[in-house]
Specification:
Blueprint: H1 2-10, H2 19-32, H3 39-67, H4 76-94, H5 101-112, H6 122-150, H7 163-173, H8 177-186, H9 198-217, E1 232-233, E2 243-253, H10 256-262, E3 274-278, E4 280-281, E5 295-297, E6 300-308, E7 311-316, E8 323-329, H11 331-355, E9 361-366, E10 371-376, H12 383-399, E11 403-409, H13 410-417, E12 431-437, E13 441-444, E14 459-468, E15 471-478, H14 480-500, H15 507-537, E16 544-547, E17 550-556, H16 561-572, E18 579-585, E19 591-596, H17 601-605, H18 608-615, E20 622-626, E21 629-633, H19 640-651
Parallel strand pairs: 1-4, 17-18
Antiparallel strand pairs: 2-3, 2-8, 3-7, 5-6, 5-8, 6-7, 9-10, 10-15, 11-12, 12-13, 14-15, 16-17, 18-19, 19-21, 20-21
């Protein structure tokens, strides 16, 4: 038993371990005991056993992470669950197990896991596992081309792949280093392997990136906050109040560095010149994804509002004197911001209700023009799914539920609502402002919201896009912007219908008909252009002449680079007809391409780069390339005829 323990300890493989060296050591130790076992035999015996034990171990971690609401992705925590799932897929294929990833997951949950206290449902986990296995096979199909492209400059006899190549394949393609090397071995790089210690370096790289991203989010102080007391935030007491009296505590010019560091949004029409600090204010400062209020202070405009520590800074287009002052918040903008912020809460709750408990807010932004919310989800959202979320959200608005706004100690908030309270990110203060919309949604949030959801009126989900794998971004318009959006869509339909001379109901069919006709005409045009190229390059055109067994084609072509390349292909593809082609077009400022049939007497007699350098001055340009293919561009398209004539002179034509 003691000897067995010592032998087993040899295979206690940590991150960064040289596995081959361990197997060699184990083989030597076994030989000392009289057992002749080669390293290859050891691997053949132990690796299947390793996979058999690893699969349930991996499935336990996968089911726990998915059960807690984690979504697989190519970054952050989602990367770990995806890599584990793909390792299971690879191991079960190596073992020739005819069982799906979701079947393994179902068996593990039913026999080895108490699943009643998890966030995600069992059916939700099965759906994610089915999708991940499909993505795994899709990744393998695309992986061969990706690996070949990434290793294009790596000698076929290399034993180690460049670290940066493996990093990139993992981060951009979702290919683990082991999978990438396995594909590379099959593609011809038979000696390639992952170097010892690469896994540890990769983990360190991911940790450093996470740390760097965290530092980027931590902004340095832009204002002299230590000079001013905390500002009384009166906007929380009544979000419908717009006029107030206050005292100016400070006013100063904004420096160039401050202006560039502020990253003003596109909704700030006029750049501010000063910052103003008051003892109290109704202006909400940018924070929690909500843009700052605008309005006026005395005789100047408030272009934006920011906060540092507990001091609010009003960014104005002029100075104000120290002392008493009147302020007015732009109500139309404030109301629109409240429409959008309250709508984001409602849409998030509706998505969670309809799609499952794994839905988590990964980010949001609320401006006056539109709002967006980023949600974690394991697949792309269809228009039908967006419509269901939109309908559910509008039903909540129609119910006119009260929006409860309370401030309670953080410990009490944690006990009452749990971790889900902090979907917008954990606040740093000891007291939490909680926004609760009945049983529909509850979050810690410091923004401005309506008192009742019915004040929004209506909302629309315009579109969704994929921010990254596992995160869907929904763009929302609510209140007046929703009505404006509907009017704009109606205008576009009306004008498009008038142009095509059909009713709006018949517009899709008409557009499809015209599109099919356009495609047919494009094919006909391309066919005619190809025939023109064939005729011009067949020798019957004045631009093509033959001398000393070499065909010279020097001509101007109407069209862009596509037309030039098409003609070049016709001219130089046949090695039985050695050709030097000099083609020019006035398109795009003037372009010249010179090509020579490779491996022929034309290539021996002429150099494309030398010819290009001699004639490109006529179009005020330059270029480069290889001895058989060179191209250049310029800014004087009218010089193309002179450049082509210069080519004839150089070639003695």
């Amino acid at each position: 038993m003691g000897e067995l323990s010592r032998l087993a300890g040899i295979l206690n493989i940590d991150v960064g371990t040289d596995v081959d060296a361990l197997f060699l050591k184990l083989s030597d130790r076994l030989q000392e005991t009289g057992l002749e076992v080669s390293v290859d035999d050891l691997k053949r015996l132990t690796e299947p056993l390793s996979s058999i034990y690893a699969i349930p171990d991996h499935m336990h971690a996968i089911c726990n992470m998915l059960g807690d609401g984690l979504i697989p992705s190519n970054s952050k925590a989602g990367y770990l669950v995806r890599m584990l799932a793909r390792r299971v897929c690879r191991m079960k294929e190596e073992l020739a197990l005819e069982v799906s990833l979701s079947e393994l997951g179902r068996h593990h949950i039913e026999h080895h896991l108490e699943f009643s206290n998890f966030t995600q449902s069992k059916e939700g986990v099965m759906k994610i596992l089915e999708l991940e296995e499909r993505k795994y096979h899709e990744m393998l199909r695309k992986g061969e081309a990706a690996v070949k492209t990434a290793l294009r400059g790596v000698p076929i006899e290399s034993t180690e792949a460049p670290d940066e190549t493996l990093f990139r394949l993992s981060e951009e393609r979702g290919l683990s280093p082991e999978m990438a090397i396995s594909i590379a071995n099959l593609a011809g790089w038979t000696e390639l392997s992952v170097r010892v210690g690469f896994a540890a370096d990769m983990a360190s790289r991911n940790a450093e990136r996470t740390k760097a991203a965290s530092k980027e989010k931590t902004q340095s102080m832009l204002f002299p906050s230590e000079e001013f007391p905390s500002t009384s935030m009166d906007y929380y007491s009544d979000t419908s109040r717009t006029s107030f009296e206050a005292k100016v505590l400070g006013c100063a010019n904004l420096s160039g560095n401050q202006l560039s560091s502020l990253n003003l949004s596109s909704e700030v029409d006029n750049p501010p010149t000063h910052y103003v600090v008051l003892d109290r204010t109704l202006f909400y400062p940018e924070g929690g994804g909500q843009l700052g209020d605008q309005g006026s202070l005395g005789g100047v405009s408030v272009c934006d509002t920011r906060i540092e520590k507990e001091t609010i800074y009003h960014l104005t287009d002029g100075p104000v004197p120290i002392g008493d002052i009147s302020g007015r918040v732009n109500w139309e903008r404030r109301r629109q911001l409240m429409d959008h912020h309250t709508a984001v809460h409602i849409v998030g709750g509706s998505a969670r209700e309809l799609l499952g408990p794994h839905i988590w807010q990964a980010g949001s932004n609320k401006g006056a023009r539109y709002a967006r919310i980023d949600l974690t989800h394991f697949s792309r959202l269809s228009r039908d799914e967006l419509n269901l979320i939109e309908d559910h959200a509008n039903d909540i608005i129609a119910s006119n539920t009260l929006v409860e706004k309370t401030e309670i100690p953080r410990a009490e908030a944690d006990e009452l609502f749990g971790f889900e309270l902090y979907q917008g990110g954990p606040p740093k203060s000891s007291h939490i402002r909680v926004i609760r919309i009945g049983d529909h949604d509850v979050q810690a949030c410091g923004g401005t919201h309506h008192d009742k959801v019915g004040e929004i009126g209506e909302l629309r989900i315009i579109r969704s896009s994929q921010v990254q794998d596992g995160v869907e971004r929904l763009q929302i318009v609510a209140g007046e912007t929703a009505r404006e959006h509907a009017r704009e869509q109606e205008r576009l339909l009306r004008e498009s219908s008038e142009v095509l001379g059909v009713s709006s109901e018949d517009l899709p069919a008409a557009v499809n008909r015209f599109f099919e006709e356009w495609k047919s005409q494009q094919k006909r045009i391309e066919s005619l252009e190809a025939e023109i190229v064939r005729l011009r390059t067949s020798g019957g055109d004045d631009g093509a002449v033959e001398r000393d067994g070499i065909r010279y084609a020097i001509m101007e072509v109407d069209g862009g680079i596509k037309a030039l390349m098409s003609m070049l292909g016709e001219l130089t593809r046949d090695p039985s007809k050695p050709t030097l082609a000099v083609l020019g077009t006035k398109d795009g400022g003037g372009k010249i391409i010179i090509a020579i049939t490779e491996g022929t007497k034309a290539a021996e007699a002429h150099n494309a780069v030398e010819i290009l350098n001699s004639i490109s001055t006529h179009i005020d340009g330059g270029g480069g390339g290889s001895p058989t293919m060179a191209q250049g561009g310029g800014s004087n398209p009218d010089g193309i005829p002179a450049a082509l004539e210069a080519a004839r002179q150089i070639l003695g034509l």
